[in-house]
Amino acid sequence: MSKLLKSLFILYTLLIFSCIPQFITGFVLNRVSLYTNKNYYYMYENIEIYAEWELYYAIGAESCFVQINIYNISEDLIWHSCEYSNVGFNSESWIIYIPDLNLLFINESTPLYVKFCLYHDDGEKVISTSSEAIDITILKSDLSCELFGFKNSIMFGENLNFSVIFFETGNNSLLINQKIYFNIKFNNKTTFLKEFSTNETGKITLHLSSLTELNLGENILNFIINESTIYEPIHFLYKLDVIKIPILIDTIRCEKDDLKDRLIYIELLYYYFFNGVPTYLSNRTILVKIFQNTSLRTSFYLKTNITGSLIFKLLYSSLDLEKNLSKFKIQFIFNGTTFLENKTSNIELRIENLNPPIEFDSVQFISVSGLITSLIIFGILFTYKNIEKKKRLEDLYIKT
């Protein structure tokens, strides 16, 4: 019985020692698994690395550890994990924030290589081995911006106040304390330059005047972020039109029914808004054209007064209109200025009883009146004489 127990004890002891790594002669690495969560990353992202392995070696007689390394395109070591020397099965993961790697970009992307490395020292020599590398690519971040309060066009004399927020496209991270170079181009020439820095909300604010910073016409607004270790150089372009000020016309009076004087009377008020303030179009020349159908009958110039009023008076007889046509058009044309728009206004009129009434002078009236009076008197005298003659004949007959 005792021999049997001794034999079992010896077998058990050998079994235990066979399972203890420090009694292993030489190292053993099994079941290596290494992978990343993806192969392409932007600068604002994290690299996630996962690894599993089995490691056995004779503790005390030799040293051995596992490490995860990342190399750049020049094969320089830019990151490594801590050393793992645990015997048996191991499973680890790592999260690396890419900006912490301080990468240098030659182009818009740069490659990196992730390796599983084993270091073994048996007292005589050090052996370093690594697995086949996993290739990953780091891309520079795409940028975007958003405008608030911006308009595509303003009138000359107006101001434009707006703000711009800059952020990374993928994760909407704000660009804080980022230099923004701003310029305005007009007719392919730079007319305005200014440098901004984004605040804690990634925003810059602009105040542009159409009288100073902008020009009449098409202005190109250019926001520039220069190349950096994180971002590709980028230009954000926007078009802003400064347009001429439109002219407004109110019809104050329009009369055409004065048959006594045969007179057309029109009063117009010309004005515009300059930076929101109503302003009279004072002392400006207006071309007046009068058409009957498509035929131009006459044209002439008038001028607005100091309060922007234009007075138009015209006798029918001076129009030289065709008598069988009673409709005509009056056109008022303002040819504009450098900063004021052209403006044309049309008024169409229908004239009733176009032919003027017949009038007689006083001599004709006296002549006709005298003739009628003479005829009446002559008629009365003739009648009276006939009566007297008849009476005398009757008297004569009675006497005989």
Describe the structure.
It is a single chain. With 400 residues, the chain is mainly beta. It folds into three domains: 119 residues, Immunoglobulin-like (Sandwich); 101 residues, Immunoglobulin-like (Sandwich), CATH 2.60.40.1930; 103 residues, Immunoglobulin-like, CATH 2.60.40.1940. The protein has two helices and 25 strands. Strands 2, 4, 5, 7, 8 and 9 form a six-stranded mixed sheet that branches. A five-stranded mixed sheet has the order 11-17-16-13-14, with no helix packed on it. Strands 18, 19, 20 and 23 form a four-stranded antiparallel sheet that branches. A hairpin with a 4-residue loop joins strand 7 and strand 8.
C-alpha-based Rg, rounded? 53 Å
Write down the oligomeric state.
Answer: single chain
DSSP strand (E) fraction? over 45%
In CATH terms, what is the architecture of the largest domain?
Answer: Sandwich
Per CATH, the class of the largest domain reads Mainly Beta
Average pLDDT figure: 81
N→C terminal distance: 220 Å
Task: Give a summary of the structure in a few sentences.
This protein is mainly β. The chain has helices at residues 2-19, 362-399, and strands spanning 28-36, 40-42, 46-56, 63-71, 77-80, 88-97, 109-121, 126-130, 134-139, 143-148, 153-155, 159-168, 179-186, 189-197, 203-209, 217-225, 234-243, 248-258, 263-274, 277-280, 285-292, 295-303, 309-315, 327-334, 343-350. Strands 2, 4, 5, 7, 8 and 9 form a 6-stranded mixed β-sheet that branches.
Question: What keywords describe this structure?
Answer:
3 domains; five-stranded mixed β-sheet; mainly beta; 400 residues; Immunoglobulin-like; single chain
